Queue: 4 jobs
Job 1
Amino acid sequence: MKFLKSGLLAAVGLAMGTMLPATTLRAGEITGFSWYSGVASVASTTIYPPSAPNNDDVAGASPNGVFITQKDYVAIGPVDLTFRTTDTGGVTEYIFDEGVYNNTGLSWSSYHLELGFGHGVFFTPSPSGDGLDFDAPDYNSILSFYPSPGFFPSVTATEDDIYAAGGVMPTLSFAAYFRFTVDVPDGITEFTIRQSPVAVPEPATLSLLIVGGLAALLKRRK
Ligand SMILES: [Ca+2]
Ligand SMILES: [Ca+2]
Ligand SMILES: [Ca+2]
């Protein structure tokens, strides 16, 4: 499995290297990609130079896109997708399309995305007003976590957080795409999209919570 994973990574790296020779560096654009997780595998991605750099205020789907074809969660926890960037002389808006597979054995009640820097224990959230955001303040582009057969119809976005909820994504189900929009500014060399599924509390956990609550109540009465 390990060999498969490293082989896959090597293949992705090789593919990106082939597509992105050093001479193609341009402004405000995503140039490379890494992922970090103990709970999921990322099948592949393709990074192209943006066809419309510095299009921060665009409404609707940005022509600049990043596809991440499959993210296969085998346990609940965060996955950090880190993108290398280079200046473009402005803010470039990207649309992200992701395939997400729930292989955790648990149903998910919501899905959380955060923008920041670094990965793992070194992850730090993106500050307010730094130009890196989920299409703030306009929020006039693609934001959808409700592909067929459903999943999360209710989505709220703030500058650096997206919460998708209002439904359930059962185990062994696949979302052909989750879609969201990110503004990539000048002045950074990389940024991270941290993504975390949130599991529906198991009946056993719920019972424990209820028992705990009752015990606390009885203690107070005494
Ligand atoms: Ca920010
Ligand atoms: Ca924007
Ligand atoms: Ca926009």
Job 2
Amino acid sequence: MILFFFKKKLALNNTRYYEILGVDKDASHEAIRKAFKKFLRYHPGKGPDEKIIKAFYEAYEVLSDPEKRKIYDKYGEEGLTNPEIIKESDPFSFYQKKYFEKFVQLNISLEDSYNGGRKEVEYDRNIICPECKGNGSPNPNENITCSKCNGSGNITNKINHIILQNKCFECNGKGKIFKEICKECQGKKVQNIKRKIEIDLERGVPDKHRYKLPNEGDEFPGKENGDLIVEIFLQEHKDFIRKGADLFYECKISLLEAINGVKLSLNFLNGKRILIESKPDEVIQPGTIKTVKNLGMPFFNSPDKYGNLHIEFKVVLPDKLTGEQKKKMNEILKGEKFNVIDDLSKDMEKYNLEDYNESETNPHYRGGKKEDWKEESSDDDNKKVNCNNQ
Ligand SMILES: [Zn+2]
Ligand SMILES: [Zn+2]
């Protein structure tokens, strides 16, 4: 007969969080963040199923934190909720005075980042149960023998000829349990409360920036309070795309505006309405990018300096012209052509143009669709924005 001793639970659950986010166990931090952002796009704020949303936040909180992720990979969820396990099984490398960091997400708009200022963050915080003062029982000195293990602290299972001995989870291997558990915290020693805290955003604060608030995280008996980490999630703007300290704006103009010059008025990030004009008599070619200096984002940490605003002009030609209009256009443009065909031989092959369709492209040199060759798909948003110039 063989005897095995297991210090930990047999079925270690350290994959659920990865499954929730839909990423591999060796996923990079960037991939984890991307999965979370993708989820948020479909569930902005509070959705129909708060349980799913809560699970996502929980999974992200753990997997986005390198230290918590290490603990999770090694000990599963049990390791995160019950620091005793870590203390007992790995007394040196993981045992620390301070409780884990707590992660909170703060959604901000591009306007918030431009202007800076105070933002309120609400989060769930564990506090030491005021009823039992973190003991888990109103009378922590009154114990009874654990009925699960009959006081041995171990549970023995026999499978075929192998005897497995596991630590009893009812009493955490102590052999005894409280006679009475605290009704307020159900013996968990902590209670979960909603808490609000204010963050002072600097002007120009970027996406992914993390604010660390010492000791504002969870409480746990016998531990120093964990730190609170507030991570900035910069939301997409309807008009502007931020790239570093610069802003990009796409603007549709008519043929008339391209020829005569353009005036556009925008609601800017500082709350003001602004007017932008092209130079008089300047013809704007399709796809031209023009720059307004210092109308970009304030530099993060040097908010007296600014990036630039770049405006890309998309010239929209009229869909159809009447015969009369075409005649006039020909007169004005004097039949100007870049492509003049002179010697047309009889045996020349002839082709027709069709509309471009991305699904008809062959992005791989072997031909066929992108998915056929397992290339990395990018879910980056190359979202186009329109301007509402008046
Ligand atoms: Zn027991
Ligand atoms: Zn309690």
Job 3
Amino acid sequence: MEAPIWVSYAALWLATVALLLLLSTNRRRRKLNLPPGPRSWPIIGNFNLVGSLPHRSFHNLSQKYGPLMMLRLGSHRVVVATSVETASLILKTHDLSFASRPRTAAGKHTTYNYSDITWSPYGPYWRQARKMCLTELFSVKRLESFEYIRTEEMNSLIKQLFSSNGKQIALKDHLSNVSLNVISRMVLGKRYLDEGEENSIIRPEEFKKMLDELFLLNGVLNIGDWIPYIGFLDLQGFVKRMKDLAKKFDRFMEHVLNEHNKRRATSEEWVARDMVDVLLELADDPNLEVKLERHGVKAFTQDLIAGGTESSAVTVEWAISELLKNPGIIDKATKELDLVVGRRRWVQEKDIPSLPYVRAIVKETMRLHPVAPMLVPRIAREDAQIAGYDIPKDTRVLVNTWTIQRDATVYENPEVFSPERFVGKNIDVLGRHYELLPFGSGRRMCPGYSLGLKVIESSLANLLHGFSWKLPAEMKADDLDMEEIFGLSNPRKVPLVVVAEPRLPRNLYDL
Ligand code: HEM
């Protein structure tokens, strides 16, 4: 049977439209001046070039393709900036064009459908979240009001190390406990995770495992994020793990919010004691531009706990590792501490500005071991032009601070751990100096940087002031493995095992 005449017309019309579309896309593609990069394979793109430490793979590629290169990972274009100039173009000059985050399965499943701060897209909700961080959660006054918590937890770390009695310890376990306790007291109002706490909803070990899983799942290369049409297969099983984890976190968050709401409803002179209280109060504010819902409060809370726990512990563990390889630096630091603080008391937060050498050690550690070596991925909200190249909308954007912070044109002998390079120099970590960006820069810069710095600087200062650090007897400094593993943080591959011996009068350890 012959097809009716309109079918032939329709077919002809469709073919013409398809041809025109193809021509116009090709013309557009030909006109784009994309940054240089390796040729890509169908479907996988350049995934074959990315190893288990992606920042190092991108570093090697940048040596060939230059400081702004473009790759294709699965279905997505990815631009990687690896110099001071290109980083500042992205994070400063064109910050607004790149101020959003890509949508990932982790953001969807583990942060209440992008309702947290880290993964929420650029827009009024995220802007309001940042305002809350600035004026409420991390204001100078709020952070000062929690100083007693940081001091108490620091004291408890000192006591634990003292009682290790010269035996070998896995340092990061102790450091994570301090950060987790500090952050849970500041954010949740108490050590919900205390072993001794009656009716504890969750054991500390279980909670730490959940945090490790959260970090891992937020850092992994989940195939479905890159090749979306096979995402439903969940070939690596990550999405299932994300959903399981989200249920566990939600159970905990529900408990926390219920307890806080109960206290608020029953106490007559209620005042906000912790960050969850502040968030619940904000959630009730009818004048907020965008309503903060219950799931938003839970997502923010989870972000604060996750952001505040791992990063400082990882950084201090790296610092002590580097120092064990460089005993001369420890000597210089302890001389400074003895001079400024003296041997009759512990270091307080107010001492930190007077300890330039200890602060230089922290900077040097963050230079060589950034917690987020490629910051957190961003996405182009609109077409942009960087250094004469076109960056089309929806391109994912990474700033490889790992490469920048090892750039031999910026740092002399970049592989050498040398705090001296920062002494007397006007380089800080506040996002203004693009050669040192451990907290990122621009609109998406870490909002918790001042808290993070306080915890890192005063922990390190007290660890150096109060203890002599040694490797286990059978180990030499040269044997110390300095490999890392990739995730959303960049910890040591092999946890550091050390011996801590008291160096101050014994009575000081009676805390
Ligand atoms: C050593 C300590 C820390 C380091 C090195 C660190 C590093 C970073 C980095 C590199 C980013 C991404 C910046 C970018 O995309 O340009 C970030 C974002 C973030 N950090 Fe931190 N951070 C630390 C401590 C904290 C603390 C203590 C908190 C909260 C309690 C926190 C909460 C966050 C949040 C919520 C974001 C997402 C911001 C956004 O997307 O708007 N961080 N952090």
Job 4
Amino acid sequence: MVVADDTGAETQVNGASHSIQITAVDTAALSELIASAQSQHDAAVEGTGAGQYPVGSKAALQGAIDSAKAVLANPDATQADVTQAVNNLTAALQAFTSSVVSVDTTALRTLIVSAQSQHDAAVEGSAVGQYHPGSKALLQTAIDSANAVLANAAVTQAEADQAVTALTEALRVFTASVVQRTSGDVNEDNNVSVGDLALVAVAYGKASTDADWDQYKAADVNGDGVVDILDLAAVAKTILEK
Ligand SMILES: [Ca+2]
Ligand SMILES: [Ca+2]
């Protein structure tokens, strides 16, 4: 029976029978997947930094989400349509997830550790093997800059590579600032004098094959592995030229 509004007549529909076969379409999985994909999409940032996604990838994922939402909203969608929608969106989500930008900072980390260790072990001063005053602070500044790059969660590969280059250069300058032995200054008093000549004389005849070479090798002024007349002559020449 159909009851009309007060502008028309009521109509008796005889024998009308409508049988509706309702097959429940399970959309729970699709619904959950859409929510998950949307939240991953919304949290994602496009860019070239670590953990970011290539430009255009969010729009591609959103397109897949929208298609899935259309299926979810369609009352005529069959279970097969829903399953297909789940499969499509799963594939789109996997493609999106695997496109995340990864930046390799291994080289930078290794270099920072090495630089810091060289910095910490270095002593500033004027003696042989020490570093020029101020050189440690310079190196530390370079290390700090490198650490700042590393601390940036969205660092790009180019930034990481540039930091490696900069710290490598700082380390080269630092290493070059180590105080070298003045040729002929056997006793390391920053002066070439008869005292050095005497030490060469004492070590005269010693060679790198000797067990106690370490004790005398400073007297090997020309570095040829033996203390001989050439070393004496080199020290003498330096003294005479002063
Ligand atoms: Ca000396
Ligand atoms: Ca020599």
